[in-house]
Amino acid sequence: MSATQTTQTPQSEQKVSVEEKLYLAKYKLDERPHLVVLDQDVCKKCAQINGTPQPCMLLCPADVYKWEEDKKNVVSYDNCVECGACRIICPYTNIEWKYPRWGRGLSHRYG
Ligand code: SF4
Ligand code: SF4
Fold it and tell me: Which of 37, 63, 72, 81 is most solvent-facing, going by the fewest CB within 10 Å?
């Protein structure tokens, strides 16, 4: 290769941010929440012990969990990308998690 030639990153190797990837996701809302915080008092205790934001909020790539001023964990389950990580990270097993009902939830545009 001569010194004047430039190299290009192949399209498949270009970096894509999480936000861009999430933009490609499509959702069909399941009106019945597929993830539920079982006990808000446990989330309050979690905040006292672990600080805020708590583990589920730090981990979730889709900002599903938000700690509100009135000390409540608000769950926007319709943003969930179904990775399942929050049910593992919660130190108090305080998240009930299952996949959305058949035909609902997340689908990917490109595989
Ligand atoms: S990690 Fe678990 S207990 Fe802590 S705020 Fe999240 S859901 Fe609540
Ligand atoms: S399953 Fe993944 S995307 Fe969905 S709420 Fe849990 S951590 Fe967030």
Answer: 63
Burial class (CB in 10 A: 0-12, 13-18, 19+), 54: buried
CB atoms within 10 A of CB 48: 10
pLDDT, tens digit (0-9, with 9 covering 90-100), for 69-91: 889 999 999 999 999 999 999 99
pLDDT in tens, 22-36: 777 777 888 899 999
Give the whole-angstrom CA distance, residue 63 versus residue 104.
20
Whether 97 contacts 59, CB under 8 Å? no
Task: Give Cα separations from 60 to 7, 20, 64, 77 (angstroms).
Answer: 36, 16, 7, 11
- Closest Cα to atom 1, ligand 2: which residue? 84
Backbone phi, psi, residue 25, to 5°: -80, 145
> What domains are defined for the chain?
32-108 (3.30.70.20)
Cβ–ligand 1 contact at 43 (below 6 Å): yes
